[in-house]
Design brief:
heterodimer, A: about 160 residues, alpha+beta, Ubiquitin-like (UB roll), DNA polymerase, domain 1, 2 domains, 5-stranded mixed β-sheet, B: alpha+beta, Aldehyde Oxidoreductase, domain 4, 3 domains, 7-stranded mixed β-sheet, 6-stranded mixed β-sheet, 25 strands, globular
Chain lengths: ~160, ~725
């Protein structure tokens, strides 16, 4: 067991946990942030993506200790039902979800892209989502939603 | 009008619909939400019929404590069964309430209007609400055949103003999936499966695991192993450790001989299929028709495919003396309850099964198995809720796959290219091994590993209309003389069950590729050739719409570009779908999809966006199966254990898609969730032929397979 400070969605948390615990379990089970999804535990599907210091990263495998003193943003940290982030709004508008399990990870990957790239083309979006899987085949709606969000965020 | 089949079994209005004092209306269905947007469609159907704001409606999905028993949510049947039951229920409710209002207000029914549940007459100050009329009391009536739903020209919502339901929760991470359930005092569990199908536990010293931090228990029941821990990561660690400690007898191996050889060599039961129905009679011999100028044959193959849900299966169970409660993403809470009762050898009514959404479901996946796993883990800790999740490797290695299939086609044509005789034989394992009441046997995975193991019941050939192997084996074309045979092959190596569209995927792939081959063999245009053999005007309409749209734009002029199309009507009774595909084939055998066009006729369109995403999602999933996917295995077990060893379609590989919906407002709703699976595979194959003159008959069309096919030609 070890002591850590970690900032999640703007709040500091002091944790006393086994340092090898993958971040996702801390987020979901200790901090109650269940929007981050467990898909493979192998950094292959992207359902678990969160943003750490501006970059979209997998949370399913890396130990929490590697995030000590970092700022982590989860899907809950970017918007709520009453106050949706423009990316979330665009996903709602485009109805870009079937089962929706992959969507939080995809939105986080899209956010990391759009935060630094206001004018992405389709290839850049696909590249940013290269390790995000969707099995329902919602890709067309998701791509439209990300492009719409880019345009909204430029306003 | 004829009542929905769901109402025949559950005619009481009160079991379907209830008004509440807060102005909400709860609607119960025996079906479940799988991401197919069934809740949206049902909400709109009821809101439309009752003339209430859709925001008032709360759809409650399957729960054995109260919802109607509608079996499984499967087969593209929900709209036609449960959806139409709700339409008839709501129409009956509206009729009853309008009659009451008429009586109370002293106004003829014809002179009453309904606006968001408020019934008013044209006279001033005359109104009453649904809620005031019902007073929250039960109706105590049944729906009868005299019910008259609205006419389509009276619709305000259907096909038009359909709200998006649940999206805010999905995009903010607020939706609770079964994997996200949390109850006070909950424990976390993982299973430790044998290393292969036939491996059995030989020796286990689990002492070290019991001493690991957070380990509350190790459940050992024969070869069924699970760890139960305080924290989830502890369960993951403990399961890995336990897996390392277990010694298995792996002497019995999986037969790895080429699956297509096994499909032809093994014992089988063969039945003729007449008008979509398999008959328990002798298979007629193959004819050679008079005037046959040309005989063409071809063989098509598909491998085992995976459901590959992005979220591994999971379930929560709470076991106590009174009740065993199970939270599951199963497609059928009632059949699962029967299956659990058999394995646990207890009364069915002691088990309460509730549906909670899981990650995308495309047929019988690991959901039911995970439910039994969770119950077995929870049984060791009465009174404690146990959330059991499969790891990725469990999902990939143990889910029931879509069956491998071989289809052999033969056509005899006269000199003019007219098809005189059509012969279709499909060889496959079953496509249906769902759990249900099987007495001393069981189809639940863990039951085969328990101390007193159960056997999986022997399958019998399904004979029903377009079931399993012979789904869409009977072509939609007008061939007068046809011989269709299904071969249910025994003793095949992998665990299988329903995967989206079942046998239709490969049967349509074969038929529609073969139609292309026949057209080319006599120098005919593949579209005209099909139309000449097709009298169903709705089928023609989707085919022509798709091809016209595809031809309306030049996508690529370069070498290696091809366009192909294909058509099917799912089960020859549901949604019509035609798919046209533009693609590129490069010198290394790599296929890149550029564009796809879908034209579909699903009868009356309820939710156009929902319908579109089902059709397009089906196309992309099928394209992924067709281009990339194949479950691999060796003597020991499944080797496709993760997304690297079983790759699926990625964003960069997704083509542009255009979808045309032919809305037939005056026709019955037709299930559409599986309609594009078959046509997509054939359209790709036909486009590859158009591009490079190479006929691909074995799925998947990976670069290796394409080069292999090129070398064989």
């Amino acid at each position: 067991m070890a002591n850590f400070r970690i900032n999640v969605n703007g709040c500091d948390h002091q944790l006393d946990v086994d340092e090898s615990t993958p971040l996702i379990y801390i987020l979901r089970n200790d901090l109650g942030l269940k929007g981050t999804k467990l898909g493979c535990g192998l950094e292959q599907c992207g359902a678990c993506k969160v943003i750490v210091d501006g970059k979209a990263v997998f949370s399913c495998n890396s130990p929490v200790s590697s995030f000590a003193n970092c700022s982590v943003t989860t899907i809950e940290g970017i918007g709520t039902a009453d106050k949706l982030h423009p990316i979330q709004k665009s996903f709602v508008k485009e109805k870009a979800a079937q089962c929706g399990y992959c969507i939080p990870g995809i939105i986080m990957a899209a956010k990391a892209l759009l935060d630094t790239t206001p004018y992405p083309d389709k290839e850049m979006v696909c590249e940013a989502l290269a390790d995000n899987l969707c099995r329902c085949g919602t890709h067309p709606q998701i791509l439209k939603a990300v492009m719409r969000a880019a345009s909204e965020m430029r306003k | 009008m004829k009542l929905s089949s769901s109402l025949e079994n559950n005619p009481d209005i009160d079991s379907w619909l209830q008004f509440h004092s807060d102005g909400k209306i709860t609607v119960s269905t025996g079906k479940v939400e799988l991401g197919q947007k069934l809740i949206t469609a049902f909400t709109v159907i009821v809101a439309e019929e009752l003339d209430v704001d859709p925001g008032r409606i709360i759809v409650i999905t399957a729960d054995t404590s109260g919802s109607p028993n509608e079996g499984y949510t499967a087969g593209s049947n929900s709209m036609e069964s449960s959806g139409m039951a709700l339409r008839q229920v709501a129409a009956k409710v509206r009729q009853v309430l309008l009659e009451k209002a008429s009586h109370q207000l002293g106004v003829q029914v014809e002179n009453l209007n309904v606006d968001d549940g408020e019934i008013s007459s044209s006279l001033p100050n005359q109104s009453v609400t649904y809620m005031e009329l019902t007073g929250g009391k039960n109706f105590n009536i049944k729906v009868s055949e005299d019910v008259v739903p609205k006419r389509h020209d009276q619709y305000h919502l259907i096909g038009n103003k359909v709200p998006g339901i649940g999206y805010e929760d999905l995009v903010t991470g607020a939706t609770t999936f079964v994997q996200d359930l949390e109850l006070p005092g909950m424990l976390h569990a993982r299973v430790v499966r044998p290393p292969g199908y036939h491996a059995r536990l030989q020796e286990l010293n689990e002492k070290d695991v019991r001493e690991m931090p957070g380990v509350v228990g190790v459940v050992v029941d024969g070869s069924f192993l699970a760890v139960v821990c305080e924290r989830e990561e502890q369960a993951v660690r403990a399961s890995k450790r336990l897996s390392g400690l277990a010694i298995w007898d792996e002497s019995k191996e999986i037969n790895t001989e080429n699956i297509f050889i096994q499909l032809k060599k093994n014992n089988r039961q063969s039945l003729p299929v007449i008008k979509g129905v398999a008959e328990l009679s002798a298979v007629p011999s193959i004819k050679t028709p008079q005037n046959s100028a040309k005989t063409i044959t071809a063989t098509y193959q598909r491998p085992y495919h995976m459901h590959g849900s992005v979220g591994p299966s999971a379930a929560m169970a709470l076991y106590d003396d009174q009740e065993i409660k199970v939270w599951t993403h199963s497609q059928g809470v009632y059949p699962l309850r029967l299956a659990l009762a058999d394995v646990l050898d207890i009364e069915e009514n002691r088990i309460h099964v509730v549906h909670v959404p899981g990650a995308g479901c495309y047929g019988h996946n690991g959901a039911d198995d995970a439910a039994l796993d969770a119950v077995l883990a929870a049984r060791a800790f009465p009174g404690k809720p146990v959330l059991l999740k499969w790891e990725r490797v469990d999902e990939h290695s143990w889910e029931p796959y879509g069956s491998a299939m071989q289809i052999e086609l033969q056509a005899n044509m006269d000199k003019s290219g007219k098809i005189l005789y059509w012969n279709h034989e499909t060889y496959s394992d079953t496509h249906l091994k769902r759990p249900s009441a099987h007495g001393k046997e069981s189809r639940l995975l863990a039951s085969w590993h328990m101390q007193v193991p159960k056997q999986s019941p022997q399958v019998k050939p399904l004979t029903g209309y377009h079931t399993g192997i012979h789904r869409n084996a009977d072509p939609i074309y007008d061939f007068n003389d046809r011989r269709i045979v299904k071969h249910l092959v025994d003793n095949l190596p992998l665990r299988v069950s329903t995967l989206r569209s079942l046998g239709a995927y490969a049967n349509v792939f074969a038929i529609e590729s073969f139609m292309d081959e026949l057209a080319h063999s006599c120098g005919r245009n593949p579209l005209e050739f099909r139309v000449d053999n097709l009298s169903d005007y709705r089928a023609k309409a989707v085919l022509e719409a798709a091809v016209e749209k595809a031809n309306s734009r030049i996508i690529s002029k370069g070498g290696g570009h091809g366009r192909g199309f294909a058509l099917a009507r799912y089960k020859n009774a549901k949604c019509y779908a035609a798919v046209a595909v533009d693609l590129l084939v490069d010198d290394y055998g790599s296929i890149k999809l550029l564009r796809a066009v879908i034209a579909a006729d699903a009868g009356q369109v309820i939710d156009p966006d929902g319908l579109r995403s089902q059709l397009e999602g089906g196309l992309l999933q099928s394209a992924s199966w067709t281009l990339k996917e194949q479950v691999k295995f060796d003597e020991k077990g499944i080797t496709s254990q993760d997304w690297e060893s079983y790759p699926i379609m990625t964003f960069a590989e997704v083509p542009e898609i255009e979808t045309i919906l032919i809305d037939r407002k005056d026709r019955p709703v037709l299930g559409a969730g599986e309609a594009t699976q078959g046509p997509t595979a054939a359209a790709i194959s036909n486009a590859v032929f158009d591009a490079v003159g190479l006929r691909l008959r074995r799925i998947p069309f990976t670069p290796e397979m394409v080069l292999e096919a090129a070398a064989e030609t």
